Every structure is written in C-alpha cells, then in structure tokens.
Amino acid sequence: MSVVERLKRYIEEGLVAEHTYKVGEDLSFEKGVYVVKEGVIELFTFKRKGKQVLDLLFKGDVIGFLLRNTSLTNYKARPLTPSTLFYIKEDALIKIGEKEPHLALDIFASLLSKQAYLYNVLTIVFAGDATEKIRDLMCLLERRAEEKGTYLTLRKSQIASITGLSYEHVVRKMKCIRIKNKNGRIRLW
Hints:
It holds the Pfam family cNMP_binding. Helices cover 41% and strands 25% of the residues. By secondary structure, it is α+β, with helices and mostly antiparallel strands. The longest helix has 25 residues, at 101-125. The chain is elongated and about 55 Å long.
C-alpha cells in the first residue's frame, strides 16, 4: 500500500490535513511535511534573472521542512494540474511514527529518493552541451512520470528554467532533437 493510501486513515484523527488547490493557485507552506495526493506541482524560486524551476512534484512525492529554523519564504509552489496535498505537522509526524513506524520510514525514504532525483537533475544541468541537457532531462522526467503513473505537460520555458538555458536556445535545440516518447506520458508545448 502506498504512502498516500496509508495517510488517508489519519485524516479522521486530525494528524493529517488535506488541502486542495486549483491550477495556478499558489501553495502556502507551513513547517511540516507535504505529500502530493494527486496532481502535478511545480516548485520554484525567483532569482535575479527570473523564475527558476527547482522540481516537479508528482503523486506520492514528499516535500518537507522539518527544521525549526528553516525559512520557507525562499520557495514557492504552484499546481500545473488540479492538485490535492496531505499536510502533516512535525508533532503529528512523530505521533504517526509512534503508531506506524514503517509509514514514517517510507515518508523519509521518499524524501531521500527526492534528493537522489535532484542530484540527477544537477548532473544534467552541469554536464554536456545544450542538446544533451535537454535530452537527458526529458529521459529523466519520462522515467519519473512512468514510475508515478501520471502524464506530464511541459512548457519549453520550464525546460529552459530547469536546464539553465535560454528559452530561445531550447526552442532551437528541440527542433533538432527527435525525442521518442514511447508511452506518450510527456507532452510538450
């Protein structure tokens, strides 16, 4: 049973809150852990040069800030599709861990796998030429979409933001790249 399914039973106890967001609505962060129940969410920050996409979150992905002194004002999130998230406060996560230790471990394992994924993104951003960056990112996102059983619609501006390339450069390079999208899980526009 997935983390999402196991968390549903803690809603009635008040240990887990469920929040629903419309497309384009900004998510407000509080200290704790968020688990994506459904939808695709874009995590980003603003830099001097503009918006920088940090990650795309799918069903079952966990994002959390558990340190007491962590500031959440540096990051923003916005749903790309209608989305629902579970929110777990720090003290509620401890109670869930006492009742069901394997669930708490699975939540932390998901956070660690997210770190491994972000490491892969960093290796893509800092290695190779523009064509390789775009191709490798598309392959990585296709694998993630397939693992999560979801479909992903990407804008070229998002690809540019993640890879650190200009929008115009991405448009030119994507005309040259033939991306084989075997399962049809990624659509570009």
